[in-house]
Amino acid sequence: xxxxxxxxxxxxxxxxxxxxxxxxxxxxxxxxxxxxxxxxxxxxxxxxxxxxxxxxxxxxxxxxxxxxxxxxxxxxxxxxxxxxxxxxxxxxxxxxxxxxxxxxxxxxxxxxxxxxxxxxxxxxxxxxxxxxxxxxxxxxxxxxxxxxxxxxxxxxxxxxxxxxxxxxxxxxxxxxxxxxxxxxxxxxxxxxxxxxxxxxxxxxxxxxxxxxxxxxxxxxxxxxxxxxxxxxxxxxxxxxxxxxxxxxxxxxxxxxxxxxxxxxxxxxxxxxxxxxxxxxxxxxxxxxxxxxxxxxxxxxxxxxxxxxxxxxxxxxxxxxxxxxxxxxxxxxxxxxxxxxxxxxxxxxxxxxxxxxxxxxxxxxxxxxxxxxxxxxxxxxxxxxxxxxxxxxxxxxxxxxxxxxxxxxxxxxxxxxxxxxxxxxxxxxxxxxxxxxxxxxxxxxxxxxxxxxxxxxxxxxxxxxxxxxx
Length: 469
Ligand code: TYD
Ligand code: MG
Prior knowledge:
- 26% of the residues lie in helices and 25% in strands.
- The protein has helices at residues 49-52, 81-87, 107-120, 134-144, 159-169, 194-211, 283-287, 335-349, 374-386, 412-421, 451-462; strands at 7-11, 17-18, 34-38, 75-76, 91-92, 96-101, 125-129, 151-155, 173-177, 214-220, 239-244, 251-259, 267-273, 276-279, 298-305, 308-320, 328-331, 356-362, 394-396, 399-400, 406-407, 426-430, 444-448.
- The strands form six sheets. The chain has a nine-stranded mixed beta sheet with strand order 8-7-9-10-6-11-12-13-14. The protein has a four-stranded mixed beta sheet with strand order 15-16-18-17.
- It starts with 6 loop residues before the first strand and ends in a 7-residue tail after the last helix.
- Thymidine-5'-diphosphate binds at residues 101, 103-109, 140, 143, 272, 274-276.
C-alpha cells in the first residue's frame, strides 16, 4: 500500500503545529483556525537556525560580556519622521520588518512612499509586488510624485527567483508586497497557506541576514479564509508594525508591537490624502478637532503612546434606560474597566447608573489600555449623568481605585506639559503626583484625593449647582 502523504495541521493565527486537527487551537485558543497543510520538506543539510539568522558564527566559544561590542547599529533615516520614530530612529541594515494591517488600509501606499523617500536619497530600493501589475503600481505612484531611477519594480511571486534577483541587483532595501502571494517551489502547498507563508519568511530572513539587505514584508490581517495571517510570523521577524485605522476615515496609526532594535508601543500618525499619506506631527491637535461647545459628558485627558503624550477627548452619554438590562458600550476603552468605573460611581457617590444606558467613547479612533485615563472617564460619566459642563480648557489625569481614591500615574509631568503646550489652563491630577510637578509654571494644577473632590472641582468651575456630599 502506498504510504499516505504526510500532512500536519497549522493554526492560521499563531502558527502552532499539530499532527491532528482540533476545533480550537491549543496554543492561542482561537476557534476554527487549524488548517491542513503538507508537512514541511525534510531538506538535507538544513542550516542551523542561528547561522541562518546570522547571529551564530558556527564555532561554539562563549564570550564574556566585556568582549562583546555593543556599538549602536547604524540606522538609515527614511526622512518620514513618523515612520522613523516607530522603527526607533531609522531602518537597520539587514533587518526584517513586518508591516501588517487590514486590506485597503494603505500598506502599499506607505511602503511606496518609504521607497520614494529612500530612493530620493540615492539608496537602491527594489519593490516586489505579487498583488498588482506594474501598471497598477505606476498609477498609485503617479499620485505620490516623481521617482528616481534608484527605485526599481518587479512583479514576481516565486521567492527563489526573487532571491536570484536580489543577489544580482544588490538593492539595499527590498519590499515584499505581500507575503501571502509569495511561494517557494520546494514547499508543497498553495501560496498563502500557513506553511508557505512560514517557509517564505524563513527564506527572507536568510536573505536579509546573509546579504545585509533590509526587507519589509507586507502581511494582510485576515479573519476569515485560507490565507495565513501575519500574527504567526511575529516571532520570526525583527520588527512588527501594524497599520491601523478606520478605512473610511482619513487617519491611520502605525504602531510598533515588537522591535528588536528599539522600544515598542511607539506610534506614528498619518493622514490619507488624495496624494498619499501625510505625516501628522501634532496628533493631540487632530484628536481634539471638532470638540463640542458647551456639551456635558466630555473631557480631555492625556494618554501615553510609547514615549509620546497624546491628548484625547473622552465622551460619555448617560440616558435613562427603558431596558431591564441597560445598554453599555465602550469604544476605544477596555470593557471591564468601564464596568469597574461605573460601579465605583454607583457605590461611592450613590449614582443610579444601573437604571441608565451608558455609552463611553474615546474620540478619534485611539485605543486606550492604560489606567491613567480612569479619572477622565469618571468625570465624563458624572458630567453626563448630572448634566454639568466641564470647562473646555481643563484636563483630568489619574488612576481610580475601587475605594474611589485617585492614584498617581507614570510620566505625569510629560502629560501635563502636553496640555500646557496645547493651551489648556487647568489640570486635575492625583494629589500624590503634585511633588513631581514642581517645574510646571504655565498651567494651574489642582491635586485631588478622590473622585468626589475631582467632580466637585469641575462642577464649581463653571456651574453653580450644589456639590455632591
Ligand atoms: P493601498 O496602499 O493599496 O492599501 P493596502 O496595500 O493596505 O491594501 O491603499 C488603499 C487605499 O488608499 C485605496 O482605497 C485608495 C487610498 N489612497 C488614497 O486615498 N490616496 C492615495 O494617494 C493613494 C495612493 C491611495
Ligand atoms: Mg496593497
